[in-house]
Amino acid sequence: MSFYDPLETRDPEDREADLMARLARQVAHARSGTAYYRQALAGVEAAACATRAALARLPLTRKRDLIELQKAAPPFGGLNALAPGEARRVFASPGPIYELQGGDVDHWRMARVLFAAGFRRGDLIHNCFSYHFTPGAFLMEGGARKLGCAVFPGGVGQTEQQVQAMVDLRPDGYVGTPSFLRIIVEKAEELGADISSLKKALVSGEALPGVTRAWLKERGIAVRQCYATADIGAIAYESEAADGMVVEEDLLVEIVRPGTGDPVPVGEVGEVVVTSFNTDYPLIRFATGDLSAILPGISPCGRTNIRLRGWLGRADQTTKIKGMFVHPEQIAEIARRFPEVARMRLVVDNPDAQDRMVLHCETAANPDGLAGKLVESLREQTKLRGSVEFVAPGGLPNDGKVIEDRRVY
């Protein structure tokens, strides 16, 4: 086994002491360097924030609140210590939620994650995350650059062209969503194209079904997944042990009871809350809205940091579909545009291990062209394709759900 650096095999007590010392400094920096935390952490003594108990007393900043925070104090809600004009890039994720890329080459700390997935200096990586609006592709670009890998910017779509580029360039591995990797491999088999140079893949943005992992392994591609967000970057990643997801070294991760900031016991499912040490965008107790649980013990691979069970769902109705977050506010905006629809519910499932979304609409009448307009509005709001189904008034459950996730993994 090999490790990216000695931090991965530290004594857990040494790691905890280091993280707590850094926490106190980060709290002081966030209070002095950002408008948001100057108010949110008013009255907090930074030097006293050096224990898990002290951390748990700090307020949460919820991802779902970023839209309104950024509207009130554009463009980043006052959470940024780096001025917008000094950022390397500025991105827009669905919502919209705006993020910045700071000055570090590997702003999102992906080099460690790529290394754990088997990538090494001199590899050519075929990058099929989106280069448009969102930072997905650039998360991997920064990590690859720091690791010493070259990148082919494949982006999304254009399956036959992706296959041809792989035939011609012989990349060592792939990064992107698992569903698109399977589509590419299926297309290559259909065309009789040789893409056998692909031996490894790092996937993210959506769940990795076991059937998809096994299917790709049969074709000689070892797939590992990581858990990352546009705001935080890498949070946790699979190692060769494939036994849970190891938390990234440069983070403090808590699991809290949904709707509260109270940490839960090891093994109990709760919301993932992350504190980062990024000085450009110092997120403290950032509630991701994702559910997970801490696995007891140390990974068989030898890495000593805590491990997460993986992504276990959403603590709120915000849902990730094909690597993109879809928010209840977006569905509400569609409803506002179509007063003839009494109620809407976006239903997400995954037949054949592929995410699918259907907008269920209650309406007494279905005039010509309404379905097409709804489909167009859905794509405009979410940047994803979906379909529409109409139901009679009263046909949707009266349970307050705007987004229903029926996916099975």
Order of strands across the main sheet: 5-4-6-7-8-9-10-15-14
Share of residues in helices: 25-40%
Structural class: alpha/beta
Whole-number average pLDDT?
Answer: 94
Question: Which features does this protein show?
Answer:
409 residues, alpha/beta, nine-stranded mixed beta sheet, four-stranded mixed beta sheet, 28% helix
Describe the 3D structure.
With 409 residues, this protein is an alpha/beta fold. It is built from 11 helices and 21 strands. It has helices at residues 12-33, 35-40, 52-56, 66-72, 111-116, 136-147, 159-169, 178-191, 210-218, 328-337, 370-382, and strands at residues 61-62, 89-93, 97-101, 124-127, 150-153, 173-176, 200-203, 222-229, 233-237, 245-247, 251-256, 270-276, 286-292, 294-295, 307-308, 319-321, 324-326, 343-349, 356-362, 387-391, 403-405. Helix 8 (178-191) runs parallel beside helix 9 (210-218). It starts with 11 loop residues before the first helix and ends with a strand.
Question: Briefly, what is this?
Answer:
The chain is an alpha/beta fold.
